Structures are given as structure tokens and as C-alpha cells.
Fold these 2 entries.
Entry 1:
Amino acid sequence: MKIGYPCINRSIGCSPGRTFRLSSYSDERLEETVRENLRCLAEILRFNQRECILFFRIGSGLVPFASHPVCTANWQETFAEPFREIGRFIREHGMRISMHPDQFVVINAKDPGVVEKSVAELRYHAAVLDAMRLDGTAKIQIHVGGVYGDKKASMERFASVYSRLDESILRRLVVENDDSRYTLADCLRIHEETGIPVLFDVFHHQVNPSGAGVAEAVELSGATWRAEDGIPMIDYSTPMPGGRKGRHAESLDNADFERFLAETAPADMDIMLEIKDKEKSALAAVGIARRDGRFLMPRER
DNA sequence: CAGTGTCAAGGTGGA
DNA sequence: TCCACCTTGACACTG
């Protein structure tokens, strides 16, 4: 079991997702930004390593506009060495990496242009992980996409586009249940159709359930991961107390997290905490998981 | 220099 | 058919 947090570290004083306006794009501006972002990413990973936080989601903004036609810079070549260096650090310390392209990636879209742009974005995500020389256990998680008034047909479109993706994407892509459209049951059906592993999101499952209890859901989704996919990943969070539906909590709900671990024992999984205070919650969760016994310190592995 | 409107990209649902 | 909302951090403009 590894525990992690997504994209940014609030206590470190830099962001690996610095960007700029499309209107001020230049290859120079891009290089300058990517250099800073990679430097910051390396710093975050060192922080995580010191704190035994061995799971991290790399934000999609690492290389701004990478899949946009405006981006003509060969960032893979320019930054080959820093990417490889970061990858080496990740492997050396037994870390797990994920990425999560945002809402604009819709591979089951009806508009072929949207599908094309989505695939380009997936290609970018895979290129980042390839540049780091990470294997197929580094995952790219997406949602199923739109419903367009016909869920069955839309799920079939997902399967059809999925089957035609490049190998560098295919080996990494996993599908996650979302908070309003596609439930865990829908994702499991797509898995049966395509073989794609299912990343279970605990919070979305509460908001948009499909029958299974949490322990069963962890088991069912976990069974969709093959050996080459690595330990199943889970997204965990709780609702913001008093917040509107769908908002993520500001900080870890220790009691709920302990309950979650107890409920799902002895399943092994890597847990991504989608909680606003990021590394702070991850530190607390590592403490709780150590007491639970499934989480091993690096020297105990 | 602090405050704030806006930002590549999509889908949904209400008006 | 149009627009606000989803959710979020950070840019970049305003006063």
C-alpha cells in the first residue's frame, strides 16, 4: 500500500503546474516554464520520499499546451535528461505515479474532432511517462465521458475508440467511475468489453452509487487489474462538511479513513487522497495506515 | 501590490 | 439555442 496526493504540494513554495496564457505562447516561454515545472516536480518528489509518501499524481499542466497545435517545441528532446533523471528517482525509491487528464478528454465524444483532440492529449500524457522511462504501472486515469442520451451506445463508442489507441496509451489507461454519469457498474461492464482496468473512486461511488458496498467495490475493481498494471489504485476523499454536493473535503477525516481501511482489509491498493490540503492529509494518512499494518515503510518493503 | 476576472479544450440541464 | 455550472489553480489585468 502506497499513499499519495495529487499534483501540487502546498508547503514547498513552488508549483509544477505553472502556465501562461495561450496568447503569450512562444517556444522560449514554454521552455522556461517547463524547466521550472520539472525542477519543482523533482523537489516535490524529494519531499515525498523523505516523508514516505510514495504515490503521486503528476499534474497535466507540466508541459502547458503540449497537445495544442500552437506547441511546436520539441520538449521531449530538450528536456530528455531531466525527465530521465526524475524517472530514475521514482524507480529508485519505489514510487508510484499516476496522471489524470481533465474533463476535456472525452474519447467517446460524438464529434470526431473532440475524439482526435482527446487522443492527442492522451498521447501527451503517455509521452511524459515514457520520457521518464516509467513502465505500465504508471497509470493515466480518465472518465468514460458523455452519455448523449444513450448510455449503451456511448459505452460502445468508448470501447471502440479504446481498442484503436496506441500501445503506449493502452498499457497505461484506466477508467474511473464519475460522480454523475458512469457508475462503478458501468465501468466494470466496460472492463468486460475491453479489458481496461477500473480505478475505483470511493467518493464518486457515494455520490453516484451502483449497488456494491465499499469493500465489494474495492474487490471488484481490484480484480480488473492485471499483474503488469501493478497494485490497483483507488481515489479516496470525503465530502466537504456542509459543502455543496461533489465538493472535496478540506482535510482528511481521520475516522472515516480508518473505517475505510478496516472495511477493505486485507486488500492491497495504492490510495490517492483527493483532499484539498494535499500533502498534509497524506502525512496523516500514512500515520493511520501504518497503524493499520498494510502500509510498510520503505526499509520494511 | 492586492483583488479579481478569466483561462484551450466538454457535458449537462435549466431557462 | 443559450448560458450557468461543474472544480480549480494560477495568470495577468485593474485600480
Entry 2:
Amino acid sequence: MPINSFENYPMSWKPQKPTDKPLYFALADQLEADIAGGVLLPGTKLPPYRELADYLDVNVSTITRAFKVCKQKGLLSGTIGSGTFVSYDTTPDNCMTRRTDSSFLVEMGPIFPRSNTTEDVICMLKKMIAEPDFGKLLQYGNSEGNAWQKEAAIKLIRKAGYDTTADRLIPATGGQNAIAAILTGLFRTGDRIGTDPLTYPGVKTTAKMLGIELIPIQQENDEISEAGLLHACKNEHIKGLYIMPDYQNPTTHTMSLSGRKMIAKTAKENNLIVIEDGAHSMLNANPLPAVASFAPEHTVYIASLSKTVAPGFRLAYVISPLQYKSLLSDALYNINLSLSPFLTELASRMIASESVDSIIEEHRQLTKNRNRLVNHYLPKHLLIGPDECIFRWLLLPENYTGKEFEKLAQQAGVQVYASERFAVGKAKPPAAVRIVVTAPETMDELRTGLEVLKKLISNK
Amino acid sequence: MPINSFENYPMSWKPQKPTDKPLYFALADQLEADIAGGVLLPGTKLPPYRELADYLDVNVSTITRAFKVCKQKGLLSGTIGSGTFVSYDTTPDNCMTRRTDSSFLVEMGPIFPRSNTTEDVICMLKKMIAEPDFGKLLQYGNSEGNAWQKEAAIKLIRKAGYDTTADRLIPATGGQNAIAAILTGLFRTGDRIGTDPLTYPGVKTTAKMLGIELIPIQQENDEISEAGLLHACKNEHIKGLYIMPDYQNPTTHTMSLSGRKMIAKTAKENNLIVIEDGAHSMLNANPLPAVASFAPEHTVYIASLSKTVAPGFRLAYVISPLQYKSLLSDALYNINLSLSPFLTELASRMIASESVDSIIEEHRQLTKNRNRLVNHYLPKHLLIGPDECIFRWLLLPENYTGKEFEKLAQQAGVQVYASERFAVGKAKPPAAVRIVVTAPETMDELRTGLEVLKKLISNK
DNA sequence: AAATTTGTCTATTTACATTTC
DNA sequence: GGAAATGTAAATAGACAAATT
């Protein structure tokens, strides 16, 4: 029997004690239902384990076990000393690809590059078809890709700030595919990975699916701090760290050289697996060296070739430390079996072609042009991010939350993504939204969208 | 302190008690190392939990926990009453795609279809390139695929024995990709899935990676028996069942109508998720109805379109019960983001084209022709499987194990796959190998391979 | 047929380390 | 700066159920 009566003490959550199901299981279920049902709001502090245990007349460990289930689902986030909180990173609708039913919306939500390579691709295709060996590309391929394809990739990746070798390359069908393979191949349910407090939602959903806990790392000057990282290594036992050093999604922040070196050093000293997502590194004409350059044996680098050069071709490379190569190869094999040799060949030829530099440059120009329009419409002091970045981070006036703004914008016909979509853990996300400047089909559409956003901001 | 001295009792495994690491962890590690190192051979019976606990002077539960880790890795397999055994399903080299360095080998190991559609594809490509909307196929696609593509797929899947609707279809990049998505989306670490005692290795490796335990189901007349399935539901708490009803890999068995109905019925009654792999269903000109036909709300059907019609195009469809649709869509999104719209369009057009029937028929003829040659070389009483199947199951004479035979064949220049590669759990796999008759590039190569196999069989 | 063997599972015990106040 | 609050995790206890003998 409970010793104290808690009827006088306000408890933020009062679960029922079940009779049929296992206790820990039933508690986890109730908690999940109450979070989903809005009974428990993000940021809510839950009662201490011992208090709950006392209230239900069970042992502390039973509470621990119940809460662990929810933590692996990304619903809770706790710290010794301060307590357990409901996470902000609930992701009801996280779809990042274009909705089919929303042609009436100005789309500035999901990240779409806008590069027109149609003519070049057609030209390349015609050449390929005419070659005598074309038929071979329609059979099953080997899983590795061939030598010249890798060399072409290496040449391109060098431009993104990482100089590597062919024996470390493993092809994947796009950056998200690479992330999924890395998380399944190198991590297991219950493992923890550090991230920025706001991070790419594709990592959030995948980690959630696999039961991997994401731990937000404390920042300083908008990037991961040494103290925060060390703290997470020591106290949260993180096994890996996911970062996007160039034009971080969604904050657009580019990590300093010293920050990169610090992460490399810390990774080596604490045997961390750094997952470095180079998704946007190619946008930069003069990128800083990748973290992988400083710690190649502790960094898995993701080079997404589809973004600028060959959109829609679904080709990325994982550049693996030698120690993890076979695990990663196996994981990619388990997920994909093999890539389409035809598509790989086509994408590789595009990458290796003479026009590749001009394609990239053209894309940069287009992005700058669009951003000029964005700068024109939106107030400078609220708009974060350089003109080369294909998305911007828009801070909101007082009394808006990102979520509210997203909804209002949607009602006004413009899709943007609120900061809540990117939030990891219990910390309240800032009032901000991400706007993808290259997503609207035309300049006119972009203008329409910006006008709506401008009006919404001025209203408050 | 241990009460008894076990020095007089032979214990099949005597672990060290560690001092530094956690007990359960260290024990799991030792066990894994000893299995990998050959100290513990497949089939070995380990000491009972209580005996080990007594010997190490720890609690039974500690042993349970240590062994659980290994079970999730597929290394152990235990039953109440009979004890714990080292599994046969160790998979050192399970790569099913063509090796790059083995052009000197006659390849009859991995499953390659051999269908020549080059001319048709070139024709289709030329048409597509000329169309004004071609450029759209090079952008990011929506994740769902469009309506006519789905209709084309449905028409084809109907020929494989399952009549379904477009709202259940989710595209994937090939059958293995579909399996990975189903296992990550609908199952979690620690869940159990029933399989045939010999099953497709792609499921084995993926399950192992995800910590999902595969439970072999007892058979009767070469297919899963009702008693065996019920037993696994009740006692092993399986949450799913993986089956390949047509030309089962590797035994070539095609499941009876009553077997299909039994599985559908049992799945409904026990709320099982049946994963029905239709990989080879299209090989059959008159297939029986799919299990999914009898239990559409409990069966996730995998329709692999790449195998016969569009090899190398990496297109498959997951046909999902409505209750699991969003979980599976999310999982495929997390793994792939989206498919290449270009490749999907190309493959879909091939599937929808008028020549699709003749392509399939041609492939069937080719397979039959090759199998006639196989029948000619190998003894009838050892050779399992119909002439329409692209692989055969070769029983071996006494004193061979599959593994030994595979090795000898390899040394003689022929690659086949031993039964051990397909084995699940502790049961000793039969002495047999799988030979893929469509894998060799030419008829001559096939003949060369068969001559080698024939000689090896006669020698003993 | 009953007793014994054997694995499974939830909940508890206990020690521990960090953060907060 | 020390005590209290708080979460973590390994190991144990004990009830349970199936398979074997």
C-alpha cells in the first residue's frame, strides 16, 4: 500500500494501475496514449520515478523500464537531477516529399533542389543507348559500383571538402538511404546518438523507428560545444554523433574550422562514430575541410550526389572508416541488395561529365537570385542564412510559435516547416520556420509565397 | 560460492567469470567469440541455464540475459525442456550478388534471372526521351508513384495469383528493400518471426541486423504444418511469418492450396503478420491464389517486378493491409525517401507494354530449356524442383554435407550454395545445395558447370 | 501420469552517479 | 559544499509454463 496519499500533491501525470497486462508495458502504453492524446503536452515535467513508484506501489525499476520504452520512441527525454520531460519532437506529419494533392499550395516546405539538367541527361542517355554494352546495364549489378564511377565520385566529393579514396566508398540510393543503412548497420535499439538541438527530421523518424535515442548536444555560438559533447559522451553514453557541418538543416549554420577539429578530436578520444552529412556541402564554392578529413577513421561521411548534380537519380556514397566498411556494406546489401547499374552509370556519367562544374555553378546562381528576392521581402533581422543556401531560417515575431505560424501560412496557401519538426528532446524549439527558396516551381510562385509570409509577419 | 564442483561433469561450455565488464555482457561476448572461433560448433548443446549459473555463481536470469543477446544475433536457438543449441545459420559469406573477381567461376550461386529485354528497353527509352515532359522525371518524385503505374502493377500481380487494389500498393526498390522495410516498420528488436526451416538468406541477415529472431516452423509434406504454426504462435510468441509459397527458396516447393488456406486462417485467428514473398510466383503460368487472397488484412505481400520483366530496374511493390499502410509507408520513406521517378516510369512502362506477356513467356521457355540440360546431367532421384523454376535443389549422396560440397565445387570452378546458408535455428540442415540454372551466362557455361557437379556426385 | 528439467518473463533489490538546491 | 533529489543499470528473486523422462 502507498504510504503517502498524493491527493494533496499535484502530480502532472496520474496513471492507472492495470490488473491484466504487465505493469511496465501498460504504463508505457498509457504514457504514449496520453502524449498522443494531448493530455500531456510537450515540455511537461513528469513526476519523479520514485514518486510514481510510490503512488502506484511498485518498484522504481518498473517505472524505469516503462519510461525506457517511451524514450526509445523519442517521446520522453530525461536527465539525472532535473527529471523527465515530454519531448517536443512529436512528428505527426513529417513527410518531406511533395504532396500530390497540394498543387494549390506554394510549396516551400520540403527541400527540393531546382536544377535543370534535362538537356544534358538526354544527350547522355542517347549516347549510352547506342553503345553495344548497353544491355549489361539492365541486368543485376554488383553491389560495389565500378572503379571509374568511384573515381568520378571522389573527384566531386573533393570539391565538397573531403579528399578520400575509392576503397572507402559504398554506393547508396540517396542520402536518406545512407542514413538508414548507417543507423541499422552500426547501431542497435537502445543506442544513443548526439545531434544538434534542431536537426534533420529524416534522422529523427529513422532513429525513432529503430529505437535509437537522439540526444541534443548543448551549443555555443550556434554549434555543438566541446563541453556539451564531452558531457553527452560521459553521462549519456552516446555512441555516435550526427552532424551537418555545411548549411546545417534547418538553421543554415556552417560550422567553424575549430568546431570541426574539436569534434574530430573528441570523436577520436571517446571512440565516437561521427555521421557527417555532407548533403549541402556542395552548395558552397569554397567549403571548409570536412570533419572526416580530421578523423577519417571515426567519421562516416555521406556524400549526396543527387542534390545538385543529378537530382532524382538517387545516388549517394557512404565513405566509411575501414573498420566499419564490412558492417556498412552488409547493411546496404540488406536494405538494397544492389543499385540499378543503369541509373548508377547514368548518374556517374553526369558527375564525370565536363558540364558538371557549370551545372553546379548554374544552380548556385539560381539559388542566389532567388535569395535576393527573399531578402527583398523578408526583414533582415529575422532572416538567417547566406544567399548560397537553398533554404532560409526565418525567426518569428513575439507571440508566434513555429507550429502556429506553419498552420496560418498553410491556410494562406503557403507551406513552410516549423521549428518543432526539427526539435530533439525536451528543449523548447525557438519560434522559427524553415523556408525552402528553391522549392517553388517558378520565381513568380516564390514571390507569391513571400508576399503571404511577409503579411503574416507584419500582422503581429 | 558454487555448491558443486563441476570438474567431474563434462560441460560443453565453460566460460570465464569476468571481473571488469558487466557479467551478462561479458558472457554474451565470450559466447559469440567461441562460436565464431569454432570452439563451439553448430548443433552443440549448451549447458542448462541453471547449471551455468551455479558454475559461475550467478543468478539464472543473468544467463538468460546473456543468451538473449546471442539469440537475437541468430547464434543460439533454445526450447523449453530440451535446452539451448548453437545455430547452424552462421553466415560468414552470404553475398548473393555476383562477385567481381570471380569471372573464372561458373556462377550458379546467386539467383539471377536471365531475360533479354534490351531491345524493348531501348525502344521505350527513345520514346520517353522524345516526350516533352521528360524533364519532370529527373526531379524528385512523390513517394507513392502515380495511378496508371499502380494499375499496371496490379494487372501483373493478378497474374501472380493476387488480385488487389491500388490503395494498398507502396513502391520499393526491389524485393530485398521491401523486406527490410517490412521488418523495420512492423517489427522491433526482440520480436520473433516464423520461417521455413530453410529460408531465403536475405531475411536471415536482415533479421540478424535488426535483432529479430527467426523461428523455424515444423513442416509436414515439405510445408509449414498447422500444428507447427500453432505451436510457434502459442509458445514462441511469433508476431509474424515469412513465407514464399511459390517455388520456395531454396527447396523449390510450391505450397498446396490447403496449406495456403491454413496459414490464412491461422494468421487471422492469432493476429499474425504474414509476409508473403511472391518473388517467384510469376514463374508459374498458372499459380495458385496467394495466401494474401485469403487473408488480405493479415498479409503483407511482396510483388517483385524486377525479376522476370524488368531485371536490374529495382522495382517491387509492397501490398499492405490497410491497418499497416502508414507504418509501412513511413518505413519505406525512412529507408528510401523516394524512388527515382525516371526508373519507376521506365519499369512501369515495360510492365504495361504489350510485349510483357511474351517477355515472361520467353523467360519461361529459356528456363525450361536450361532445366532440360540439368535433368540430363544430374540424377533424377537427387534433383528436386520443376522445370519452370530458375533454380533446383540438389540432394547430395551420403557422407557429403552441403558445406563440404560447396567448397569442393568451388575448387573445381563452380559456385553453388549449400543448405547451411539457408538454415534457420538448431536443426541440422539436409545435405543439399541450390543450383541456379539461369545464372550462367551461356548454355555452354551451364554445361561446363553441370559436368563438374556430376563428377563430384559420382565420386562418392 | 507425475516429477523433473529447462527456458521465459516481470518485478524487485541494490549500488551508483550526477544534478539540483 | 554537502545533502537531497533524481535517473540508470546490473543482478537477483520468484512465479510460470512447456518439454522431457
